[in-house]
Amino acid sequence: MLQLDEKILNQIIKPRPLESHKGNFGKILTVGGNQQYGGAIILSTAAAIHAGAGLVSCATSPQNLTALHSIVPEAMFIDFNNKKAVSQAAEKTNVIVVGPGLGIDIPAVNILENILRNSRKNQFLIIDGSAISLLADNQKLFKFLKEKQVIFTPHQMEWQRISGIKIADQAEDTNKKQQQKLHATVVLKKYHTVIYHLDGTSSLLPIGGPYMSTGGMGDTLTGIIAAFLGQFHLKDYEQVIDAAVYCHSAIAAELSSSHYIVLPTDIIGRLQEFMAQYTNS
Amino acid sequence: MLQLDEKILNQIIKPRPLESHKGNFGKILTVGGNQQYGGAIILSTAAAIHAGAGLVSCATSPQNLTALHSIVPEAMFIDFNNKKAVSQAAEKTNVIVVGPGLGIDIPAVNILENILRNSRKNQFLIIDGSAISLLADNQKLFKFLKEKQVIFTPHQMEWQRISGIKIADQAEDTNKKQQQKLHATVVLKKYHTVIYHLDGTSSLLPIGGPYMSTGGMGDTLTGIIAAFLGQFHLKDYEQVIDAAVYCHSAIAAELSSSHYIVLPTDIIGRLQEFMAQYTNS
Amino acid sequence: MLQLDEKILNQIIKPRPLESHKGNFGKILTVGGNQQYGGAIILSTAAAIHAGAGLVSCATSPQNLTALHSIVPEAMFIDFNNKKAVSQAAEKTNVIVVGPGLGIDIPAVNILENILRNSRKNQFLIIDGSAISLLADNQKLFKFLKEKQVIFTPHQMEWQRISGIKIADQAEDTNKKQQQKLHATVVLKKYHTVIYHLDGTSSLLPIGGPYMSTGGMGDTLTGIIAAFLGQFHLKDYEQVIDAAVYCHSAIAAELSSSHYIVLPTDIIGRLQEFMAQYTNS
Amino acid sequence: MLQLDEKILNQIIKPRPLESHKGNFGKILTVGGNQQYGGAIILSTAAAIHAGAGLVSCATSPQNLTALHSIVPEAMFIDFNNKKAVSQAAEKTNVIVVGPGLGIDIPAVNILENILRNSRKNQFLIIDGSAISLLADNQKLFKFLKEKQVIFTPHQMEWQRISGIKIADQAEDTNKKQQQKLHATVVLKKYHTVIYHLDGTSSLLPIGGPYMSTGGMGDTLTGIIAAFLGQFHLKDYEQVIDAAVYCHSAIAAELSSSHYIVLPTDIIGRLQEFMAQYTNS
């Protein structure tokens, strides 16, 4: 297992080409945020914007519109109950994040199915939180993942649901076996997160710590991964995912020297300055 | 009476165990905030999150949803008129704060009763503000407090209401006598707050001052107590309460050297860095 | 005419008495903010809170509730269409600000009349913006100002409306004559603001400048005056008004050395630290 | 083609005249922001306020009211569906920005027509984003631009729509030819933006970079141009436009030394201090 270190940031975070426009840095669509968990999709969206995504639309409950704009007026809004608007947005995007705060009720399943059904071949699909649980319970939805570039970002209980492996049995070998069957990258979030790659290799995240054990932390990660995939165009895109995961925890580690706990909002607020350190490589 | 000093922070605020997850640091439920007093529950919730609680849900009026997320997108939301959702949340939580901005009308009584009825034996119940007044007026609700770990956080008028002791007569002995009958910890907020413990001892807070005489200060304290109880697991949990009360005023005292008055928002914004100072003990 | 200088701040801004509570520092009610001008009453309310008022309630349009709490969760809210709630709040308060963003339509007149009718003898009434224009057009409302401590804060056009003196003719003598007829303190806002006192004296503000020519600046002043009157209890309360007016412009002047223009939000954010400088006098 | 440099800021950003009032620094009306793109008009409005406009009203969807005030309580609000209120506001203003986030549906066309129809001879009309596309598709609206001071701020695709010149063919000569037919200043936003003036000259912006390729950047520019036109009264007002465009990118360039990408919100937050540097010229 490759142990990630700071070099991954030097490899991935590059100065931007001078002649470029927003489209070069990714059109991101984030989908989630019901009445109860609206903050999750707001954090994901804000993280994507602060991590450098070119254009970010957030498909969420209309109840979250105003809080979204109060936190990131840079975001665009789509009512996630508007099936047509969501499917059109899904088609026109490079990277989709689906799941943060989506919930597990019937409307949530319908939204997830609509997104998956309308996503395109060459898209990145970051599937997080309740969307993972929904997939585990609706196996027929897996057919829509074919020929997409799928990234799952489960915590251990969500991994249990989708892999069938109980938390106590989640060892590297068993995890890898199930991940390979999913034909997806798996970012298994835990103390020392592991990223399982499509080619059977995996990366270990040796940084991060309990100062990150706070609500919304995983939602924030999805936004960073989305922004990195949207703007850093490597053939081996799983290196880009590795870098995003490392970046998220490296910022938290840095802040933890002065903060007892690190909040998602803190990480989001530090992204732009943190990333600037790596452009002189 | 024990006079609290900074040592209590060194004793209680400890480095977090490396292998841990959000659940280890408390599931908090804050309940309150009607149309008039929505800010109160937002401040309580924000304080809990910044003080390190693992997961925080806020049951409040739907009118407060957007302001809640604008201030702390890390919070989760529950409509406090949704009896079933509130009772389910009450069951699944470690610490409940009830009262900030709840009001004293009929719906408020019903919400309070619902919360108390559905709280569990080993839970912490922090009862603040209007919830104290409501209890004083609805003695039948006291039966739900049995075998819970109850903390009252009255100011002197609220203490008068629930103890029957007029403010002029609130001396240590009479206070203690009534507090013992309540089988609850009492944080009596005043110039030099006193914390009355279950075992008959009490702690005096020698810090704090008139720069704290501003709306929302007590609401903020409830959130800090909740977060501390959620994450610092001592058998003698009243030491944890002492530490939370000390922390709240110590931050205010520190800020008062540069601020004519200290606002709740200032204290909330300083919690993470302040607490970081005590992990090297 | 007395020329104000920094000494007025040393005279008025005093260390708070140690044994005190929120009630000692003023219960403020701010009234205004229709759909079009909601920001005005939010700025007034936020200024009152940051300038040290004990408790601040804002009676405004329900459309402004969420933005109010997003900016100052410390504030309490009253629907200004709720006649009973507003009149009850008016009775229980020490200082009323009425006018910022109130508008001049029929509902606005009714709200103003309700406030004036329910204000009490010993209250401070700060009448600003559209409330001044409404009074000018509804002379029958003047009877409610009797035996109150009234402060008008007009700009020159509003002063023309209520005094009948055209802007070109607004000289010290003519102004004073009309101000004396009003039995009110008049803060005439202009380049070098003048405060006309009840005893016929007046104070000149020699500071402030064109960096303050931006929307919301006067609304912010009303909140500072309210907070000062609520917490600094001098028999000669017009000195307190002088200090509040000086404080507002002194902060702006200080910030103007680094800011091309100074926004109301900047002044509000600087109040607590600015005022702290004057407690060692 | 004139290559702009920092001198343009020294020429345009002047100390304000001492005796002045808000009206001297411009009454701005910003129009845009449907449900999907509300952030765009909020950013434009916030930029106008922070860049020194005297008074700024924002005509937008009621859904954006609260987020607008949460970000800039200094702004005034108009429901953009209220035809009468919008047309009255258009008449009373010095500078109109129309387009950011307006959308291209039927209501958007009607709002645009209402604005253009009610604008006055000596007004500045900044036409941006979807309003440019709408004009391209509704040629009959051009008649309302006669004898106005019109500024178009297209990106290359919008310029293609309104000029008929395909992006690949957008060379200086062809651009200028079409711009002259429009009788309008054209700020053509691209890597090295060009400003085409009414007299046939043009200015090249040699600064700015890919750190600006993020959603909302152009919306922010419209607010800065509006504020500059509102407060800096030069006969040759196109120099003022040049300065606004330079200012926007100069702030971004400055921030890019420490920020991997620069967000609109960052530029808005830096405007006041940045502009203060140029008043000693």
UniProtKB/TrEMBL annotation, chains A, B, C, D:
Stretches that traverse the bilayer: none
Domain YjeF C-terminal span(s) in chain numbering: 5-278
The protein's required cofactors: Mg(2+)
Binding residues for AMP: 189-193, 218
Catalytic activity: (6S)-NADHX + ADP = AMP + phosphate + NADH + H(+); (6S)-NADPHX + ADP = AMP + phosphate + NADPH + H(+)
GO molecular function: ADP-dependent NAD(P)H-hydrate dehydratase activity; ATP binding; kinase activity; NAD(P)HX epimerase activity
E.C. number(s) listed in UniProt: 4.2.1.136
Residues that bind (6S)-NADPHX: 40, 101, 155, 219
Cited SUPFAM superfamilies: Ribokinase-like
Keyword tags: ATP-binding, Kinase, Lyase, NAD, NADP, Nucleotide-binding, Transferase
Stored InterPro entries: Carbohydrate_kinase_pred_CS, CARKD, Ribokinase-like
Function statement: Catalyzes the dehydration of the S-form of NAD(P)HX at the expense of ADP, which is converted to AMP. Together with NAD(P)HX epimerase, which catalyzes the epimerization of the S- and R-forms, the enzyme allows the repair of both epimers of NAD(P)HX, a damaged form of NAD(P)H that is a result of enzymatic or heat-dependent hydration.
Quaternary context: Homotetramer.
PANTHER family: ATP-DEPENDENT (S)-NAD(P)H-HYDRATE DEHYDRATASE, ATP-DEPENDENT (S)-NAD(P)H-HYDRATE DEHYDRATASE FAMILY MEMBER
Protein's name in the database: ADP-dependent (S)-NAD(P)H-hydrate dehydratase
The organism of origin for this protein: Liquorilactobacillus oeni DSM 19972
